[in-house]
Specification:
Elements lengths: L12 E2 L2 E9 L3 E9 L5 E9 L7 H14 L10 E7 L2 E7 L3 E3 H10 L6 H19 L21 E4 L4 E3 L28 H4 L6 H17 L9 H10 L14 H10 L11 H6 L1
Antiparallel strand pairs: 1-2, 2-3, 3-4, 4-6, 5-6, 7-8, 8-9
Helix pairs in contact: 3-5, 5-7
């Protein structure tokens, strides 16, 4: 078994937080449901993102984790998952975030499609509008010098949006974000994100900016409203070809009586020419 395949040593506590159960697992870290207990009966339920033990020895991944903690800690918006704490426990880095009581948007979409139903248009518009508001706040983040940091999420997708049980949508996971002042730079030719939601300019290796995230909003909104995948293919290569050249049907041609205002937002996000695309996430939110 290689070092990359070694399982993590099981721990039940990091720093001040007791880990109560694994919520999710990714290539770089696991996310745990956890509890912070303090004096006089004070307690708080949180989510702890704990870097895999073998990743803790990799300078690049450690820098990426530092980047995520530093950048997201500066974001304070009701539609972005908040970072509460960051620490190092015996060489294991961890990030503490607010616990979001809900489901990922990908789970919500799968449940609807398995049941043979389409999500209500009002719900689709609400969740994407919430996500767009959070995204706009990220895009407008300024540094200590008052200048925009040029933050681009680069992985806006249903897996990275939480739908809370009270109906609020929240954007998560800024692990592959691009911004000025990052400790880690993406190697030339390395693609970050999910191909089916990646903007054409990203796939071509061109410069991505906030409009690349807006493309992803459009893909998600199209899929939620139309009840099917927009760029469905067997592999990443075929998916990339569809993103670059495939047909993008106007929802009005697929669904009778589809609202013009909603269709205009979707198609405005899905302009392959960045200069023709809706310019800001705020414009998407207000529709």
């Amino acid at each position: 078994m290689s070092a990359e395949q070694q399982p993590d040593v099981q721990v039940d506590r990091v720093g001040r937080y007791r880990l109560l159960g694994e919520i999710a697992r990714g290539g770089m870290a696991t996310v745990h449901f956890a509890r912070l207990a303090a004096a006089h009966g004070f307690e708080k339920w949180v989510a702890v993102k704990l870097m895999h033990e073998h990743m803790s020895q990799d300078v690049t991944f450690v820098s990426m984790f530092h980047d995520e903690a530093r950048i997201v800690s500066q974001l304070n918006h009701p539609n972005i998952c908040q970072v509460l704490d960051f620490g190092d426990d015996a060489g294991r880095l961890y990030l503490v975030m607010e616990y979001l009581h809900g489901e990922t948007l990908s789970s919500v979409i799968r449940a609807a499609w398995r049941g043979g139903t389409r999500l209500p248009l009002w719900f689709c518009a609400r969740i994407i509008a919430d996500t767009a508001r959070g995204l706009h706040a990220a895009h407008e983040l300024k540094g200590a010098d008052g200048q925009l940091v040029g933050l681009v999420h680069r992985d806006v997708s249903p897996q990275n949006i939480m739908v809370l049980y009270d109906g609020v949508g929240k954007l998560m996971d800024f692990g592959v974000v691009r911004a000025e002042g990052r400790l880690t730079e993406t190697a030339a030719g390395t693609l970050k994100g999910k191909f089916a939601y990646m903007a054409p300019e990203q796939l071509r290796g061109g410069e991505s900016d906030k409009r690349s995230d807006i493309w992803a909003l459009g893909v998600m909104l199209w899929e939620m409203c139309c009840g099917e995948r927009l760029f469905r293919a067997k592999g990443e290569g075929q998916t990339a070809v569809l993103v670059l050249q495939g047909d993008i049907p106007d929802p009005r041609s697929l669904i009778e009586g589809f609202p013009d205002s909603l269709a205009d937002v979707i198609m405005g996000c899905l302009e392959r020419d960045q200069d023709e695309r809706i310019e800001t996430a705020r414009d998407v939110a207000i529709g």
